[in-house]
Amino acid sequence: MSTVGVVIIGRNEGDRLKRCLKSVHEIADKLIYVDSGSTDGSVDLARSLGAIIIDLDISVPFTAARARNAGFHYLIETKPVVDYVQFIDGDCELNNGWLTKASAFLDENSSVAMVCGRLRERFPEHSIYNQLCDIEWDTPAGETKACGGIAMARADALQKVNGYLESLIAGEEPELCVRLRQAEWIVWRLDYDMAWHDAAMSKFGQWWRRMVRGGYAFAEGTNLHGNSPERHWVTESRRAWVWGLVIPFIVVVSAAIFGVKGLVLLALYPAQVIRLALRGNRSPQENWLHAFFLVLGKFPEVQGQLTFWLNRLFNTRNKIIEYKGSK
Question: Which domains, and CATH codes, for the chain?
Fold first, then answer.
């Protein structure tokens, strides 16, 4: 039988981490928890549930990519015969049948390097921001361009592309999948419940910071692979610039020249919301909610874009962008 190691990464996840550990500690061939400077007792909790602990050096900037690589490298050094590695974030709980389902799929499909399934938000009813996450997770099954941070990877494929790019503060999973596909591997999403995620977002500011992080990831991804044939995240970056900065700039200039009449261009925003809502395939309430926040989200996304390019200009490095606290 194929052997599966599990790498959990976390930072101040509290009760979320407890659920995560309990969902895998009895079924993993080897369980590793990588902690990024938690101050809430996460390390002691993970150790009490049988996880091997890797406590990252706080003198080096934390990134999820760095944490995943640390766990993976330890796994293959101490258990070199491991076939697959399941990555999971500490705010998620793995479905009891997922490891078996995913490993069996990789056994039967030797060209697939990484497989993921349906990620569901644990408490979508608690806030509109959690609900937006649940909509975001609902993506088509089949061959796909990328998996998120919760996925099972073929160990030898991951080694061949040198794992995650540790300098990325966000968007490291799609970037890894770009390199896997360039190496002629396939990425796949199964129509099967994989895990429950706890976004724990109840405030507008949390949602905003999460979208800033997304915009930053778009910019960094475009900078790395925007010139490749697939134009990685070029479209997403351009949308952020157009809707978040270019149109507002044109509106301001038009208003300065034509007065109130120049504000007519602001009608582009409700028109875009209507277009996206009518194109949705969920309930009317979800379609309108999703459409409104897709349009609104271009403003924090362009903030993230600007942050990335200013960092490039001044040769500075951004810290991880966190949007929730411990629980």
Answer: 4-202 (3.90.550.10), 203-327 (no CATH)
- Could you tell me how many residues make up the chain? 327
Helices (H), 79-127: 98-108
The residue with tokens 């952020």 is 240
Apex 66 CA angle, 65 and 69, nearest 5:
85
Alpha carbons 213 and 224: distance in angstroms, whole number: 16
Q: What is the DSSP string of 124-186?
A: GGG-HHHHHHHHHH----EE-S---SSEEEEHHHHHHTTS--TT-SS-HHHHHHHHHHHTT-E
pLDDT in tens, the chain (327 residues): 689 999 999 988 888 999 999 999 878 888 999 999 888 899 999 999 889 999 999 888 889 999 999 999 999 998 888 999 999 999 999 999 999 999 999 999 999 999 999 999 999 999 999 999 999 999 999 999 999 999 999 999 999 999 999 999 999 999 999 999 999 999 999 999 999 999 999 999 999 999 999 999 999 999 999 998 889 999 999 999 999 999 999 999 999 999 999 999 999 999 999 999 999 999 999 999 999 999 999 999 999 999 999 999 999 988 888 887 544
d(CA 261, CA 247) in angstroms, rounded, equals 15
Report H helices in the chain.
15-24, 42-48, 64-78, 98-108, 128-137, 155-160, 172-182, 204-225, 234-241, 247-258, 268-279, 284-296, 298-314
Q: What is the CA radius of gyration of the chain?
A: 21
Residue 30, classed as helix, strand or coil, is strand
Determine the residue type at 51. A
The Cα 230–Cα 304 span in angstroms is 22
